[in-house]
């Protein structure tokens, strides 16, 4: 420790603006990574790795353990390879945030805002009617992250969104009522879709599969989801991994009006994407 204190002035004297910038960039990167994994199971993995490295390094230093020192030194390359595997969901989320073109561009013209308000109104009315009938429902509003991989798990519809269409899809005897509906812009893209389930520790233990799926899709992407309980008829909204329960039509319309923002639709027409537009 005394040697470190004596060497500190010499180290500080060698700092220039490039070194300060380098430290600042690395600090921001570490903070960004830690903010991504906060509240996820990856935090426990990081704590476990840090605990093993600290205890191992301490034992190797105090008792001068040559083999343990060699093992810890050579485990760093293995950790570098293993980190993308351990933290795949978090890294994917970070890359999606950086890769969203819409995040760097100004949002929403007046017509797009009006369209979002109309969609919010339709979903709020449909949720209220579904709640009154105690029909379970899960409606996902796509954000800037495309949900193509989840669309493929269901039945493509590509129809204009309406209260009647949502009620028909979630009718208890309908073959699509158990899955999720995915909404892109003002159109229902697919129904009967399978979504990832949230596995947040201590937060979803008391929730059913439909509510866990509603939270899970908002953890994996920037989508929002509206869920209606089949047992109680309660309406809830999931956003960024957080479930806001006990909403009525007015509250849901207000929250969607605040949170739901139009996004840049796919500029390519259907025939350029290799399929003809569906007729509804």
Strand and helix map with partners:
Elements lengths: L1 H12 L3 H21 L4 H22 L2 H21 L1 H12 L10 H24 L3 E5 L6 H4 L3 E6 L2 H7 L10 E5 L2 E7 L15 H12 L3 E5 L6 E5 L2 E6 L1 H11 L21
Helix pairs in contact: 3-4, 6-8, 6-10
User: What is the overall silhouette?
Assistant: elongated
Strand composition percent: 5-15%
CATH topology of the largest domain: YojJ-like (1
Q: Class of the largest domain, according to the CATH hierarchy? A: Alpha Beta
Q: What's the N-to-C terminus distance?
A: 75 Å
Pattern of helices and strands: HHHHHHEHEHEEHEEEH
Using the 3D structure, state the CATH architecture of the largest domain. 3-Layer(aba) Sandwich
Q: How would you sum up the major sheet?
A: 7 strands, mixed
- Helicity range of the residues? 40-55%
Overview of the molecule:
The chain is elongated. It has helices spanning 2-13, 17-37, 42-63, 66-86, 88-99, 110-133, 148-151, 163-169, 209-220, 249-259; strands at 137-141, 155-160, 180-184, 187-193, 224-228, 235-239, 242-247. The chain has a seven-stranded mixed sheet, with helices on both faces. A hairpin with a 2-residue loop joins strand 3 and strand 4. It has two domains: 2-101, no CATH class; 108-273, YojJ-like (1, CATH 3.40.1700.10. Helix 3 (42-63) packs antiparallel against helix 4 and helix 6 runs antiparallel to helix 10. By secondary structure, it is of the alpha+beta class. Helix content is 52%, strand content 14%. Residues 101-108 and 264-280 have low confidence and may be disordered.
Give descriptors for this structure.
YojJ-like (1, 280 residues, 2 domains, 10 helices, 14% strand, 7 strands, alpha+beta, disordered C terminus
